[in-house]
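[[Local backbone shapes]]
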Amino acid sequence: MRIKRGICLSLCAFFICAAAGCGKEEESPEVFLSQEPSAQQEETEWNAAQINADMDADVLNTAPAETAAGNGVSGKDAVDVDLTQLSSTMVYSEVYNMMVYPEQYVGKKIKMEGQMSVYESPDQEGKHYFTVIIADATACCQLGIEFVLENGSEDPADYPEAGTEVCVAGEFQLYDEDGETYCHLVSSDILE
């Protein structure tokens, strides 16, 4: 019985090796690319550069006064980063960047919209955190940015009800609490 099993296994191994060795290795066809870019490639590269420049100007203005003046907006209503003008994927990405690279946003006026959420501190009685929650395009991932009204109120009655859609504009700042650094929008206005 063992001999028959051994012979069968040997024959199977032989046929597998023989079948694998019989395959002909095909040569890949040579592809020759022109050294000079085509007109379509040049146009694509120019469009990509233009889109990147437009996004930089629209999303994160380095000269807010000039941009605000160019849009007819000045003073208190000038916004440096307007997240309301971006797609849901881009908004989520930009908020993620705010969390990872907060120093790039400190002092900039941010405008964003999303779902109002309220968190009550389990450690400090009566302490509330008010946030705008942003979801990604598939609504599976969420990020939030805390905001504080211009009058500094921490009374939940002064804020919109949790779960409602809100639009908030405020100055991005960092603060330390219990040895951790957090970000929030200060001097925030709730926009209609």
